[in-house]
Specification:
Length: about 900
């Protein structure tokens, strides 16, 4: 079957290649955009004097956009800055008029145990006069309290404040009207023209740190900026500081840290706040000339860099989650398909136990998944994706192996709750896309949020899709960093890193694999196999004779039986009761008070499909069950083959109880169901080989049995045996189902309307097969064909409204219920009365059973007439009127069936 699904399997395995190629295509497209000159360090061509051009690159030849990519062996020193609130966010004591004119001061809050001391020290912070030296602009500026409202970067190669259009703030106690000027700063070949403006620094005393705390947090967040609308520059608590002790606590605005997880945190502007307080204290003690030098900050040197984004690492968690989780609906659909088409039930009926089924299916899905993942890694590595190349392949192997095992177990578990392939397909692929999208647009944000509790992350990773996403996310982070830094990706030693979640993911997946495997097998036994939820507590029977139980007192004698029954049915019940008292018997099937009641739904009353049926079948007998539609025949068969459980009573097959020992019964049972249960892509020969192996046939014996079975049902010649079953006609499928039920010499066979849809020639051939097969086995056959029942069955039982109305061979039933001749005559409608008078003269107790358009049918008791008298009366009638047709026939099995069915239905109506 998998050979014929090769095209689908190839498409499945090529899907990872398609995704990897798509990522490479995106990578190349982005790289082509990143290779533009504006995104590389600036270069010029310097004439060497020999007619040659030497390419020289550096900051001095670069624009501001190109500077970021240039080598910086000696980073520039930048003055320390304060984080000054923007005009619209500054805390003000009066109205907002200053925000419109841009003249609002920045507020600094002061507190401490000694107000005089605190205010004196704070007063030294902004007191230094501005003295700009044109020969060294940065040095002149660095010696003052400067600030900026721009957001800082996570590097200080070039401070963001000097690249923005916003002016630098010079904090002073008071500002004059002409307190704004411009300075030129040389950066390589570029000149930065920066405006410097005076900004008033307003220092306000508060009585305690609690007041400061309330004031800081009393504002509300602005929806556009995400900042508070009453921001302050800083707050200082000098606590118990004095001339001999310096103890200060500093508040600062941490929202400028920009630590969202998607990029490194920004370098917050706190050092200058600390330096201002330190210098102010020194000046308080030693005078205005004292200061603690901390004027510049600078970065570490850096080499030339190229802007490269590893998209396989950035998009890998999302795309590769889809690639891997795609296996889930593939496995799920396969399992549900076998369930929906009852193929697993069919295999189980022919002896395939739950254990072998699980082992074979699990091994097959594991093999397919392993090949799929191997191709995935090989494809990705071959086309150069750093996601695979930089990380240790052994970690890849362990991670993928554990997850595909967990995914297969999940598919087995989920398959127990679906009976439709269409529904399973929709839900399966919703899980595929839902897992990827939720991982990429929800779970990843929690991973990147350092404030989110680790316990919450672990709780979410209990969902297998998120644990998969977390593992892929860790691979991508290490690959991205390794590509950016020119180092290796993830190694086993990295699993000890507290920030690496791969170890916890591997542990979670391994534990869930074992747990889900056990739960899935248990659910399969309870949901699919119909066992009791506590089936594992049931004690196994020690011997077959203990299966037989004594009948209930209600059935020991017919005197205790209130309801009147037919003699033959009562005799069959007594026979069953006697058989149950002996330890061994030659009877293959014994049904004891078997009953099935379907509960009522939607306000309808409960339905009794089978009413306390007792029946015994010896080996070598074919028992036919006749009855109208809805009589309960199929419910009886379904109970016998284990599809449904009896409501009460039981049956024994080869001495085994159908309630507890169906797994053992299946090894000696054959079934031809009412509807053909076949694999569309398997041939007739392959079906028989498969089911023959389930019946322990192998080698030459198996081949011989398959050939004989094909010949017996006329599927051997003309290449029919090697055609796929989906190309068979309805009759050919029916014959194949009969052959499957008989292969392997089962001791008990159930055939539910086996000849449905067959032409007369095929039907006769099938009858010959069944007649030969019943010689050494018991067969229960249901049919609506009276001819088939009379031709094949040794005994018949007529089933009406769930009850067995009569039992016996065809001749006995016709003799018992057919003690009359059927006389039929067709004349013109004007002579119908004369025909009726003629019949009454022949038999006063004749009964008319049919009349339409001149055709009348009568039942004549056999003990009242002679056949010769009928012929003589008809000859006389022909002389008086025209007789178009007439006939005299003995009672048929069909007449018996109709008579018994009508009588039973009438009794049911009266009761």
């Amino acid at each position: 079957m998998q050979k014929r699904n090769m095209e689908m399997n190839i498409r499945l395995i090529l899907f990872p290649l398609f995704i990897c190629l798509l990522l490479v295509l995106i990578q190349k497209t982005v790289n082509s955009q990143l290779d533009k000159p504006s995104l590389r360090c600036g270069c010029i061509c310097v004439d060497t004097g020999k007619g040659q051009c030497e390419k020289t690159c550096g900051i001095e030849y670069s624009s501001l956009d190109q500077v970021f990519f240039c080598p910086i062996p000696h980073p520039t020193e930048w003055p320390l800055l304060l984080q000054v609130p923007a005009q619209q966010f500054r805390a003000v004591r009066t109205g907002d008029r200053c925000k419109k004119t841009g003249s609002c001061p920045v507020t600094m809050l002061i507190t401490g145990n000694n107000q005089t001391f605190g205010q004196s020290v704070a007063g030294n912070m902004f007191s230094r006069p501005l003295n700009v030296n044109s020969s060294d602009i940065l040095q002149s500026l660095a010696d003052n309290a400067l600030g900026s409202g721009t957001t800082s970067r996570y590097t200080n190669f070039i401070d963001a404040a000097f690249l923005s259009n916003a002016p630098i703030d010079l904090l002073q106690p008071q500002c004059s009207s002409d307190s704004q000027f411009s300075v030129a700063i040389q950066l390589g070949s570029a000149t930065l023209q920066k405006d410097v403006r005076c900004t008033q620094g307003l220092q306000l005393w508060r009585n305690s740190s609690a007041e400061i705390n309330d004031e800081i947090y009393k504002g509300y967040r602005n929806g556009n900026s995400g900042r508070k609308i009453n921001e302050i520059l800083a707050a200082y608590d000098f606590a118990n500081s004095n001339e001999n002790l310096f103890n200060v606590t500093i508040w600062y605005n941490s929202t400028y840290k920009n630590d969202t997880g998607d990029q490194p945190p920004a370098l917050i502007r706190v050092p200058r706040s600390i330096n201002l307080a330190s210098n102010a204290y020194l000046q308080f003690l030693l005078g205005p000339s004292a200061k603690m030098l901390f004027e510049f900050v600078k970065e570490m040197p850096k080499p030339e860099t190229n802007l490269r984004l590893d998209f396989s690492s950035l998009l890998g968690p999302l795309f590769f989650t889809w690639v891997i989780v795609q296996l889930f609906p593939v496995v799920l659909i396969s399992l549900v398909y076998e369930k929906e088409h009852k193929l697993r039930v069919m295999m189980k009926m022919h002896g395939l136990g739950d254990g072998p089924y699980w082992m074979i299916s699990y091994a097959y899905f594991l093999a397919i998944s392993s090949v799929y993942m191997l191709c995935f890694v090989v494809f990705g590595s071959a086309i150069g994706l750093n996601f695979f190349r930089l990380n240790d392949y052994s970690i890849h192997f362990v991670f993928y192996f554990l997850y595909i095992n967990l995914q297969i177990c999940l598919a087995f578990l989920v398959a127990d709750w679906f009976s439709s392939v269409k529904t399973a397909t929709v839900v399966g692929y919703m899980m595929v896309f839902g897992t990827g999208l939720l991982g990429g647009f929800l779970f990843q944000f929690f991973l990147q949020d350092s404030s989110f509790p680790k316990a919450g992350i672990i709780a979410m990773e209990l969902f297998p899709g998120f644990s998969l996403y977390r593992g892929l996310y860790e691979f991508s982070q290490y690959a991205f960093t390794g590509n950016f830094m020119g180092s290796d990706g993830m190694r086993w030693k990295d699993l000890n890193d507290s920030n690496n979640g791969m170890r916890e993911v591997l542990v979670i997946i391994a534990i869930e694999w074992l747990v889900v495997l056990c739960v899935a097998y248990y659910a399969d036994q309870v949901v699919s196999s119909g066992k009791s939820p506590l089936f594992f507590l049931r004690k196994q029977q020690k011997n077959l004779s203990s299966s037989f139980r004594k009948p209930s007192p209600r059935r020991l004698g017919s005197k205790l039986f209130v309801q009147m029954e037919k003699f033959d049915v009562d005799q069959e019940r007594e026979k069953v009761e006697q058989l149950l008292l002996v330890s061994s018997t030659s009877h293959s099937i014994i049904c004891n008070n078997l009953k099935k009641i379907y509960p009522g739904t939607d306000g309808n009353p409960e339905k009794c499909a089978v009413r306390e049926l007792s029946l015994a079948l010896p080996e070598g007998e074919c028992f036919g069950m006749l009855g109208p539609n809805g009589a309960g025949k199929t419910s009886f068969i379904n109970m016998m083959i284990g599809l449904i459980k009896p409501s009460s009573g039981t049956a024994y097959v080869q001495g085994l109880d159908i309630r507890t020992d169906m797994d053992k019964i299946y090894t000696s049972m054959g079934v031809c169901p009412q509807h053909d249960l076949l694999w569309d892509t398997l041939t007739g020969r392959e079906h028989l080989f498969f089911y023959g192996r389930l019946k322990n046939l192998n080698g030459a014996a198996l081949t011989h049995a398959v050939e004989e079975s094909l010949k017996s049902v006329n599927l051997f010649h003309g290449g029919v045996a090697d055609k796929q079953s989906r190309k068979y006609s309805g009759g050919m499928k029916r014959r194949l189902s009969v052959a499957i039920s008989l292969i392997g010499d089962p001791k008990v066979v159930y055939m539910d309307e086996p000849s449905t849809g067959l032409d007369p020639a095929s039907r006769n051939m099938l009858w010959d097969v069944v007649k030969r097969a019943k010689q050494n086995r018991a067969i229960i056959l249901t049919t609506h064909s009276m001819e088939e029942a009379e031709h094949l069955c040794d005994r018949l039982g007529i089933f009406v409204d769930g009850s067995l109305q009569c039992v016996g061979n065809p001749k006995e039933l016709k003799a018992r219920y057919g003690g009359s001749y059927v006389f039929t005559m067709t004349t013109s409608p004007t002579h119908e009365e004369e025909v009726e008078n003629l019949v009454n003269q022949l038999s006063p107790n004749a009964t008319k059973v049919y009349q339409i358009s001149g055709t009348q049918k009568f039942e004549l008791p056999k003990d009242e007439i002679r056949i010769a008298d009928v012929f003589e009366a008809v000859e006389n009638a022909k002389s008086r009127f025209t007789v178009q047709a007439w006939g005299l026939a003995d009672t048929t099995l069909e007449d018996v069936f109709i008579k018994v069915a009508r009588g039973a239905q009438a009794d049911t109506t009266l009761s």
